[in-house]
Amino acid sequence: MKGIVKKLTKKNKGARFFYVGLIGLCFFLSPSFSQAQDEQEKEVPWRLHGYGELHFNHPKTGAMSQSGGDEIDIHRWVIGLAYEFSDRIRMDMELDFEHAASEIEFEYGFIEFDIIPGLSARVGSLLMPVGPLNEFHEPPLFYSVERPYLERSLIPTTWQENGAGFVARFMKGKLAFRAYATAGLNGANFTTLDGIRGGRSKSIQSKIEEWAGVGRVEYAPVKYLTVASSGYVGGASQGPIPVGNIMVKILEGDLKFKYEGLECIGVFLRTEVDDAGQASSFAGETVGSAMQGGYAEAAYRLKNLLFPEASPADLALFARFERFNTNHEVPIDYPANPSAFRRIFTTGMAYYPLSSVVLKADGEFWKDGTDDTVERLNLAAAFMF
Amino acid sequence: MKMKKTIIVALLIGGFVATATSETKKSDTAPFALLSLKLEGCASCEGCRTAMRQVVQGEAKASRIKLNGMTLIAAFDEAARLPIGQIAKSLEASASHRFTVNKIQLSISGTKVTENHHPYLKIVPTGQLFELSGEDIESYEDGSQLTISGTLHNWQATSPLLEAAKIKRVPLH
User: Please, what's the b/e burial string for A264-286 (b: 16 or more CB within 10 A of its CB; e: otherwise)?
Assistant: First the structure.
């Protein structure tokens, strides 16, 4: 164990203390955690949670070539802690050890205050309520090995920003909304293919020369259907950009339908970047003034056909089509990059021995605006608790 | 202009923190009812945990709510009608989340009554009735003030069945 810690942190002595402290904390907590599980009725003020996913990609993601090389990666390993200070005040946080802890990310961390029944306020590093996946990104909650690519290039999951706001749920749980004021994006780091992704502060000393407002409304009129919409407006002329008035506006809509074993989801999103020419001049490549796309996915869970009723096992088959363009519209004097227009068909299966553990296999079929194609095989093992 | 925006947001944050931190004082006496819902589904993400809490709080107006693993515990200090069936239904119909209510346990105080040859626990202030089952229940005479803890069945029914695991006589003051 000591050797592993030393190897992981040989470049950073401060990080060694962090790892040793974290491992020590886990040992300290583990006996009382087991005890808490044995004595469900006994109230404990905290809860450990987390998720992880191991990926095999052939070829590795990001490569638009069959000879891009294969990869096996401990993509994400996340540990979280929720602690209740009192009946009305609590803390929740997650640490993400990405790529076998080569990147440590503060996934989110906030203090939550209940104001009235159904309405709470939060302050801290908040998961942005944009799209159906950014807040609910645990791998057993989606069927593909990789997250939908639109939710990487158009919605930069995992997207967290420092800020404060409200979380509410009314009408017997059927209507939910989140609304936050957060630090804005940094337009100096926008790119052609990944759009606004590079502009996230990841909650690290977020520049707040520009603020943003973000919100999401979800409505479940009947048990089988949820319709939702997200919006974001924020300035992005942060930091080193001396002039310009870069502003990002996102409008998203999604629909989920679940009936018996059938699950369907549709997502459409449009992002507009005002003064994209300024962002492009800073990036040295074309940043789209409008980015647009959507995806549709259908899945069928075969539990009733394949497994006895008492078994927790399940098998889902799914297919998804994504179509998006991060250079849908471009600023004057900057040509559109045809590689920014991407169409991806993904199909595969997810086997759940338990609802919280999943083994996945799928194939991706890519085609971009230059007519380049790539086919990718993905495998994954993942969990959440 | 930017400074003004920052000040407004800071005031907003300060305002709600001040409002929310005014904690309610906990009651020293045992609660009138303690409702425990064992859930199955996603509780891994913060959104789900908040959703569980908010749905139950919104439906039941409980005095206190705790999330203990996959068990939600709601304490009611004051006598109130418990919309147990509606809580379970709302959790299962909650937008964006998938929960199933597996088991409900209830500890509640009331008066034992007999109607149509069946024992019931009557919550006098609200008139809510819980049908009772259990070996010892017949040994308590009608009119006894009892606190009964056990598993609740048929929770969507008007008078759900409370399978008594523990019966405690409430002293009369």
Answer: ebebbbbbbbbbbbbbbebbeeb
Burial, B70: exposed, middle or buried (Cβ in 10 Å; 0-12, 13-18, 19+)?
Answer: middle
Quick one: how far is CA A368 from the chain centroid? 23
**Cis peptide leading into residue A240 (ω within 30°):** no
The two three-digit tokens of residue A272, written as one number: 């507009």
pLDDT in tens, A62-79: 878 888 899 999 999 999
Q: What is the bridge-based pairing of β-strands A89-97 and A71-84?
A: antiparallel
- Do A55 and A146 touch, CB atoms closer than 8 A? yes
* Residue type present at position B167: I
State which residue of chain B sits closest to A221, comparing Cα positions.
Answer: B95
What is the distance between the alpha carbons of residues B130 and B163, in angstroms, rounded to a whole number?
Answer: 10
ipTM associated with this complex: 0.72
3-state secondary structure of A334: coil
**CB neighbour list of residue A141: distance below 8 Å, 6 or more residues apart:** A384, B42, B45
Question: Could you give the C-alpha distances from A23 to A4, A28, A135, B24, in angstroms and in order?
Answer: 12, 9, 27, 37
How far apart (Å, rounded) are the C-alpha atoms in residues A342 and A85? 47
Closest alpha carbon to A125 in A110, A140, A139, A137: A110
- Give, for A199, the enclosing helix (H) or strand (E): none
Half-sphere exposure of A275 (CA within 13 A, CB side): 17
Residue A272 backbone dihedrals phi, psi, to 5 degrees: -115, 135
- Identify whether A158 is preceded by a cis peptide bond (ω within 30 of 0): yes
- C-alpha span between A281 and A285 (Å, rounded): 7
Instruction: Read off the pLDDT of residues A264-284 as tens digits, 9 standing for 90 and up.
Output: 999 999 999 999 999 999 999
Euclidean distance between CA atoms B88 and B86, whole angstroms: 5
Q: What are phi and psi of A216, to 5 degrees?
A: -150, 135
Closest residue on chain B to A165 (Cα): B13
How confident is the model over A39-60, as pLDDT tens digits?
A: 344 567 888 899 999 999 999 9
Residue A139 has what DSSP assignment? G
**What is chain A's alpha carbon radius of gyration, rounded to the nearest angstrom?**
22
Separation of alpha carbons A337 and A334, rounded Å: 9
- Nearest CA to B43 among A117, A384, A124, A95? A384
Helices (H), chain B: 2-20, 46-60, 84-93
pLDDT tens for B36-47 read 999 887 777 788
- pLDDT given at position B60: 76
- Best residue in A41, A111, A169, A227 for a mutation probing chain B (most B CBs within 10 Å): A169
User: Rounded to an integer, what distance in angstroms lies between the CA atom of residue A105 and that of residue A76?
Assistant: 10
**DSSP assigned state of A88:** S
Give the chain A residue nearest B2 (alpha carbons): A209
Q: Which residues of A touch B5 (CB under 8 A)?
A: 211
Q: Which residues of A touch B19 (CB under 8 A)?
A: 113, 115
Judging contacts by C-beta atoms under 8 Å, the chain A residues touching residue B92 are: 223
pTM over cut 0.95? no
The band of A165, judged by pLDDT with boundaries at 50, 70 and 90, is very high
Q: What residues of chain A lie within 8 A of the CB of B166, using their CB?
A: none
